[in-house]
């Protein structure tokens, strides 16, 4: 009888859960509401476990077939210890050791990592980064997150802050304050929030007549509206799109000379809303990046969408147990 991997991708409102086989093929997926009533994390993890057990028992497998449990958490994680340092969206103010809590429920290894890292691992194994050992994934959503896979493994750094690329300072004028407490982070100029920041900053300064003027005045600008207008030829929105693209291309360029990825995978809502954005990023990236570091590197769109998290959470077990043991 074959073995299975259990996966949980914890989000602020829902937890996506899944069962995978030894080849990281997904056998089933579903989701449960996120219980944020208990700031110790115990109740949420217990709910996840109960739901996983229920689904395993309904399948052709039993809990003794489980090779390991992989968990993605929206917050800073110490991969070595399984500690999560204050997951704001879950209202965990203190350190929660997710691995220690979860190991009370099961007899198998438990791996914990942050959601951006597991999403990158998911794309590496089953998405747009398949077949490569060096993959960078950048999530362009409300914020900007990322994960770096180097030589087949997630880059964590000495305290777990590796690949926190959203807080790379690109705006030397430091025009906008970031959630992290500093200013000028790329997240403040190249995320959905960043697009709005740039629109509000530049519009009073420029003389363009924009088709989205009514949205600007009503404070209803969205990144999608800006990219759609840019596609239709709106000069102001083209200007904004180029600014945003240049920041992201600069980030991709830095990532290329540091880790030389085969694939730079762009995901998140903004990547699907803005094909014009991705084309601009590619052009600028080719212009500014050291030639040997960009040779053979492809900038591609993410393929797994919302499933990247559970795939990558299961991927933790695949990568750090099956591949390490030489089984795969
Ligand atoms: Zn920041």
Automatic annotation (TrEMBL):
Origin species, per record, is Staphylococcus hsinchuensis
Q: Give the UniProt family note.
A: Belongs to the ROK (NagC/XylR) family.
Q: Name one Pfam family in it.
A: ROK
Provide the E.C. number(s) assigned to this enzyme.
2.7.1.2
Give, as one word, the top-level EC class. Answer: transferase
Q: Which UniProt keywords apply?
A: ATP-binding, Kinase, Nucleotide-binding, Transferase
Q: What is the lineage of its organism?
A: Bacteria, Bacillati, Bacillota, Bacilli, Bacillales
Molecular function in Gene Ontology: glucokinase activity
Q: What is this protein called?
A: Glucokinase
Does this entry carry the keyword Nucleotide-binding? Answer: yes
**InterPro entries attached here?**
ATPase_NBD, ROK, ROK_cs, ROK_glcA
